[in-house]
Amino acid sequence: MSHPVNPGNYSESGDYPPATSDPATGAGYTDAGYTEPASGYAEPVAGYSETAETGYGSSAYVAPSGGSYAAGSTSTSSSGISDVSVGEIMGKISADMSTLMRQELQLAKAELTVEAKKATAGVAMLAAAGVAGFFLLMFALITLWQALASLFDEDAWSALVVTVLLAVVAGVLALMGKKKMQQVNPKPEQTIETLQEAPSALKPSNR
């Protein structure tokens, strides 16, 4: 950068030449030394400066780099991770385990209710088969009695027909009741499956 200077030589004592300056920019040599142009960037002076921003006469520190820090102001940085104590974590785990156990009990109750309904239907059919079997036995005895008396009377054939009919009904009901009872599962399969999956769900995942 060239600076306008006064033609001539320096004095032997090393003083600056007579003061000269550029009227347009104000740059040049003065008695105090070289003066930069008025336009351009002015570095802030480091130190404390008063500010009326808060109305209380608080001071603001001006850093050498140009930044400032107002007294009394705070700056917080959110790291995205909240500070949680071990007690809070254990409390949450305990609450989650209690909720899980309640849900598992409700699931087991629902499964057992469905299975109980199946068992009730099967027991009812078996009870009906038992009643029919009772009458079957009764009519079988009557048939036998009438058969023995057939040598003298033909009414035994009617008792035999009734006996056969009751035998068919009792056999059908017994087979249906047995089929229903085979469908009953005393173990709550879904509850057992979820309980087996619970330990693996509580383990921390390896990433």
Automatic annotation (TrEMBL):
InterPro entries: Phage_holin_3_6. The lineage of its organism: Bacteria, Bacillati, Actinomycetota, Actinomycetes, Propionibacteriales. Keywords: Membrane, Transmembrane, Transmembrane helix. The chain crosses the membrane at residues 123-145, 157-177. This is Transmembrane protein. Residues 1-32, 186-207 are annotated as: Disordered. It holds the Pfam family Phage_holin_3_6. It comes from the Bacteria.
